[in-house]
Amino acid sequence: MTEAKELLSEKWLSGNHISVAKRNKKLFLALFATLLLAAAIVGIVAGVNSRKNSDDGDLSASHAILKSSCSSTLYPDLCFSSLASVPGATAKLSSKSDVIEASLNLTKKAVRHNYFSVKKLIKTRKNLTKREKTALHDCLEIIDETLDELHKAVEELHEYPNKKSLSLHADDLKTLISSAITNQETCLDGFSHDKADKHVREALLAGEIYVERLCSNALAMIKNMTDTDIANESKTANRKLKEVDADEIKWPEWMSAADRRLLQSSSVTPNVVVAADGSGDYTTVSAAVAAAPDNSNTRDVIRIKAGVYRENVDVTKKKKNIMFLGDGRTTTIITASRNVGDGSTTFNSATVAAVGEGFLARDITFQNTAGPSKHQAVALRVGADLSAFYRCDMLAYQDTLYVHSNRQFYVGCLVAGTVDFIFGNAAAVLQDCDIHARRPNSGQKNMVTAQGRTDPNQNTGIVIHKSRIGATSDLKPVQSSFPTYLGRPWKEYSRTVIMQTAISDVINPAGWYEWSGTFALDTLFYGEYQNTGAGSGTSNRVTWKGFKVITSATEAQAYTPGSFIAGSSWLGSTGFPFSLGLLAARKPEEISSVFTAQSPVETLLNMDDPIKSFKGYGKVDELEEQAFRKRTRRRLFILVISAVVLLTVIIGAVAGILIHRRNNSSHSSSPAPATQLNPAASLKAMCGVTQYPTSCYSSISSLDTTNTTDPEVLFKLSLRVAIKELSELADELPAKLIAKTNDTRVRDALIVCQGLFEDAVDRLNDSISSVEVGHQGEKLLSSANISDMKTWLSTTITDQETCLDALQEINSTLLENVKTAIQNSTEFSSNSLAIVTKILSLLANFNAPIHRRRLLGFGGKFPDWVNSGERRLLEKSNATAHVTVAKDGSGDYTTIKAAVAAVPKKSETRFVIHVKEGKYLENVILDKNKWNVMIYGDGKKKTIVSGSLNFVDGTPTFSTATFAVAGRGFFAKDMGFINTAGAEKHQAVALRSGSDRSVFYRCSFNGFQDTLYAHSNRQFYRDCDITGTIDFIFGNAAVVFQNCNIQPRQPLRNQFNTITAQGKKDPNQNTGISIQKCFFSPLDNLTAPTYLGRPWKVYSTTVIMKSEIGAFLNPLGWKEWLSGVEPPSTIFYAEYQNTGPGSTVDQRVKWAGFQPSLTADEAGKFTVESFIQGSGWLPETDVNFDASL
């Protein structure tokens, strides 16, 4: 506990250090930031310095080294900003090794902080369950291991590159940091067993993810540095690995000659003897381990005599170079039964846990007798670096062998189990082993492996080499009822390779199985090379991008013990037999004999009751079939986005600015000291990303609570500034102006403003609540609520702009007065949106999936933000309604209005209204307090809501809607919405939606000008019909139309038709119109010029993709807003892979803001998945949709 003791004396929580765990609870894991963000930071630096120094020079040499080193990482902005924010740190950087060491030292501080966070949770969190307490103590153990690994890595750097070969230095460094990354995941995985655990997990998530990403950066820089150095050395020395006879039995070189003799010798003199009958020095294995010297550099051999030892044994990190020597795998058995079903964590369920470096075991059985109904129950967990197992058996069911971390080697062993029975994130090679699937519980599938690599630079994976994969005798007769697969991807970069192994017909022809839908299928690496046996055929294997049939011996060689676990440096010292290279080609008769000539292990497995023949396993009757509920365990892996991004980016940018400002332009050899970060500088840096930096800085700095450098706090203050300003407007401005006017039209427009202002305040409050959700004041930021905040802040801006539109369309003299009055609130809203968009949500736009380990993908269904019950409601032909509306009096109400009035306010559950066939002449409004309402009719041509309010007769466009919905989560199905005012009445809306996450399925919208007002928030339309003339799909929602019929109709004489008019006002709004796989055709006889759309606002965004466009369309495609005036270059209009006679783009407009042909990546940004985060809400509706192109 050396490192743990050190942390007790450090005041990590003092000063301006980053308190990550307090900033965020629920975070998504994912790809972190792009060079775009780095460019933004450099832009901030350049912008600020340009005000102070007209003669700005290049970055200092140390900054150049820092940026160069960080450029190779997955999270370059975190890398740069976290180091640049440490006063004086960058002045000491003169090499890549210096940058790595500084990064590791910073990481150690963050790890120590996490240690305190866990200790505090244990002390202060009430009502912790047994498993939660165990998981927290697991985390303390893991954190302590991480500190040791980081300390060793720093020591290794000090020796680099002179003490040993470059390749060994590289492998040791990569192993240490790979293990540190795995440890963070393991801590969080301990809270993934049930829903109750998630609250504790959330309290730790930010800190663990922060450390994991710091480690990831260090690992990437280590890999870049060592790869470069090895390549340079190879150029000069032409160095090659020593050739090894493929069939020669040798151990990795990291095992000394003495250890090798120990493992192979028939007579070994032990240091101590354990005997259950009292004839040795100890009667329990745990007592012998406890007596072993700590941190020994010499081998300590513990002989364990024949017997059954019922205990859980921990070989901790201090117990180095211990060897367990049994009397035989059938006679020396260590057994226990901890399991997740009874409240343990997977990590803590291990019968034997070996963590101390250099652990060896021979001639022993490790087993867990919990049985299949107890879920995860580990027989052996290994985190010991340079560990090896010879002639050992690992017997259990789910999660038998946990190859947790570091380098491991297994030879001549038996591993038997059911689900994920070899799993973890070590660099593990199993050679000459028997790997056998057992009969699982009814309804289960067997998975041989579940590898857990989370970072592409980790040197981890599971390799099965020259082994035999088969089935136990109880599974063989019924193997067709229990599909067995070689593995599935537990984590995003899962890596498993099976080479020159005999695979029996127990393996399903597909070979591999998905974890959850498409998760990791592109990023994993699963390989097979020269395998034999009935189950080795690859013609019917999965077709995943990440799966490969290896045909090159050179490529396969990378996964042999000699290459993959640096076996040539250590295995030889164990005395265990091994092979460093590939097998020589086998003769056909040798291949066929693999499963006929049985090894002693296979003979045992084919006994009538194989596992029970081992002493100590009699408690478990594996043939017993019990009722088994569907397993609930889901190993959660959350690609996450953290408020740490905001904190580190801003602090890093400010530090870079200040350090750079102090640099001497005269090329002085001694760099100036870094300036201490201060609250004003932090605020300026944050405001620098906004459109209105002056108002951002002045409004927030005027508060008396801004003595902080915490950008998350500053961001929250920006929201409070906007709320205060807009609340005062909503309370006073419209009411005062209404009292002063006698003009009915002006009054109506001001009433619209009043409602919009109130809605905008609600959206701001929703946003600030998103930052503050959590226990004990802890804040929460995830990719999901970042998307929510972008939507809500976009709506806030749209609401205020809509108020101005209402006044402008009647040419009110109050327009300029109101515009001036709302200038501050508009700017403040824009500032908050810019901060979210440019700093927090860049990663969300990376489209890195957030893996919730769903059993099924969402292809062909609605976005995930509609739950399964709602999906069934939308698909069900006769959903059960809470109330029924019928004109003939046969229902609960005769008008829709009356039914809506009965809807409870702000209901968290779905309220269903069935509107029977009929034409309902009424204007219906579901206000912002009517949440989660579903209205379904008897058909879009049978159940019709009809109105005729219009602009000409004195109604503001916003208020003309026949049907208007603002409450979140609105669904409509099989309904028709009509405005019958006619073309001569100008603006006349059939439906207006400002409902976030609203869905319209098999509905029709019939009108002329302004038929469908997609006002704001996220919306989805599927299988709908929309007809109209001018701007008949308009607004500023983030809206996607799929498989819809879009039909322009004949307008008034001398008019032209424009299908869309998108209203994006601010460049950071996440809004636009996306029309995908739809059908554009004329309604009746259409002769008027017709265009796809025109830009209503300065950042108007509309994309038409993979749709069929008829010949009616004007070849120009698009129309300017003002005749003869080209729209600004800030618009974004585009087309992608459309078909039909109107889809030709040769004669399209030549505007700067129009793209006639997008790439697939560009078009992908406007799909359901990316544009409206459809995977988060649509699948549950059961309304068909296409998530991607």
Describe the structure.
By secondary structure, this protein is of the alpha/beta class. The protein contains 27 helices and 54 strands. Helices cover 32% and strands 18% of the residues. The strands form 7 sheets. Strands 2-3-6-9-12-15-18-21-24-26-27 form an 11-stranded parallel sheet, covered by helices on one side. An 11-stranded parallel sheet has the order 29-30-33-36-39-42-45-48-51-53-54. The chain has an 8-stranded parallel sheet with strand order 4-7-10-13-16-19-22-25. α25 links the parallel β29 (883-885) and β30 (911-915). α19 (711-740) packs antiparallel against α20. The protein is elongated, with a radius of gyration of 33 Å.
| CATH architecture label name of the largest domain | 3 Solenoid
Structural class: alpha/beta
In CATH terms, what is the fold-level topology of the largest domain? Pectate Lyase C-like
**How are the strands ordered across the major sheet?**
2-3-6-9-12-15-18-21-24-26-27
Number of domains: 5
> What are the low-pLDDT stretches, counting only 5+ consecutive residues below 50?
1-59, 237-250, 585-676, 773-779, 841-861
InterPro entries: Invertase/methylesterase_inhib (IPR035513), Pectin_lyas_fold (IPR012334), Pectin_lyase_fold/virulence (IPR011050), Pectinesterase_Asp_AS (IPR033131), Pectinesterase_cat (IPR000070), Pectinesterase_inhib_dom (IPR006501), Pectinesterase_Tyr_AS (IPR018040)
Transmembrane segments: 27-48, 409-430, 636-659
Protein name: pectinesterase
Active site: 420, 1031
